[in-house]
Amino acid sequence: MGNRDPDAFAGFAAARAGALHRAAYLMVGDAQLAQDLVQEALTKTYVAWPRLRDPGRAEAYTRKAIITTAIGWYRKKSWGERVVVAVPEGAHSGHEEDSDQRAWLWQALQDLPVRQRAAIVLRYYEDLTEPQTAEAMGCAVGTVKSQVSAGLKKLREGLGADVERLSHDRIEVVER
Predict the structure, then answer these.
(1) Residue 5 belongs to a domain with what CATH number?
(2) Where is the domain boundary, 58, 82, 106?
(3) How far apart are CA 158 and CA 162, in angstroms?
């Protein structure tokens, strides 16, 4: 504590940047915005580095910075419209339907409020436990449970009868 070790921070940032970017991308749905979020979160982590009691907890600190920064950005700006990249046609049979399902589920996830989306991403895509998700979001475990529950409910309502379009493995991800 109290020691800023640039090499230790650089090692952490290099080792975890990809995973942090993936999580940020799943939360905001835009690669450039996710990159900006990760850079800002890593800057905050670097500033806090001397105060971190356990450098092994740096990733949790950085994830929390990503989430709180994203929530702050969403509160300040109205980002109702998103650019959607066309899904390329597949080379093998069934690929087009699978791609359509992914794009369709992706859009449904992006339509969730940012805190619900963050809770679902951390729990089901990043495979964090409820306590780990609560720590990353800076909230109680009960809040994680309610955010996940509300998010899954909205996904089910939004998908409606179309939920049958999802393959069995995708339903497990949503209902886990």
Answers:
(1) 1.10.1740
(2) 82
(3) 9
Both 165 and 91 in one domain: the answer is: yes
User: Nearest-5° angle of CA 148, CA 132, CA 105?
Assistant: 35
Give CA 142 to chain center in angstroms: 19
Residue 99: CATH number of its domain: 1.10.10.10
Instruction: Looking at the structure, tell me whether residues 12 and 63 fall in a common domain.
Output: yes
Nearest to 109 by CA among 165, 28, 22, 12: 28
Stated pTM of the model: 0.59
Count of domains in the chain?
A: 2
pLDDT at residue 125, as a whole number = 83
State the burial class of residue 33 (Cβ atoms within 10 Å of its Cβ: 0-12, 13-18, 19+).
middle
Encoded tokens for 56: 């092994």
Whole-angstrom Cα distance, residue 18 to residue 150? 29
117-167 residue pLDDT tens: 989 988 888 888 999 899 888 899 999 999 999 998 888 887 765 655 544
- 22-70 residue pLDDT tens: 989 988 888 999 999 999 999 999 999 988 888 788 998 999 999 888 8
Decide: residue 58, CB within 10 A, 0-12 exposed, 13-18 middle, 19+ buried: buried
**Residue 94 zone, left/alpha/beta (φ > 0; ψ -120 to 50; rest):** left
